[in-house]
Amino acid sequence: MAVKIRLVRLGKIRTPHYRIVVADSRKARNGLKIEEIGRYSPASDPSLIEVNSERAQHWLKNGAKPTEAVEALLKVTGDWQKFKGIAGSEGTLKTLPARPDKRVAYEAAVKSAMNEPKDGATTMKKRAAEKLAAKTTPVESTPAAEVAAEVVEAPVTEAVVTEAVVTEAPAEVAAETPAETSAE
Description:
By secondary structure, the protein is α+β, with helices and mostly antiparallel strands. It contains 8 helices and 5 strands, in the order ββββαβααααααα. Strands 4-3-2-1-5 form a 5-stranded mixed beta sheet.
């Protein structure tokens, strides 16, 4: 029986994936296989090539002939050089960088979200912003500031009271001073 190491095509129309299999050369491409020894996915960058080196060496030593495509893949992984006994058995296979664990990435995202400002993307109304500012910055009162506040408030309140009395009281009472009315 003539044994070949070849590719079995899987995947959709424009996204091929292959399995590296050992099969009888007289069978169909995707037909009966003896053993699956690897995978090949050319769509990713760099291409994914996984070969069980021990099983590939076993079948090569027992007379299995690789197809041209599989021979190129075995050269990349270094299995062909190892079988032939020539230099370069480490191969030129490029691997994908290790992906961070999903849990670690999630925890990092949560931690960065906790460091963002609490007020969010919406703008606060003017009163709410003033109240927040008043709470965050305590006002220190000094005796001079308190006296100035009293001076500013006092004339305003007296003027309001005087006007109220004038508008409500008859003309005779308005002419009298507060001291005269209290004496009577």
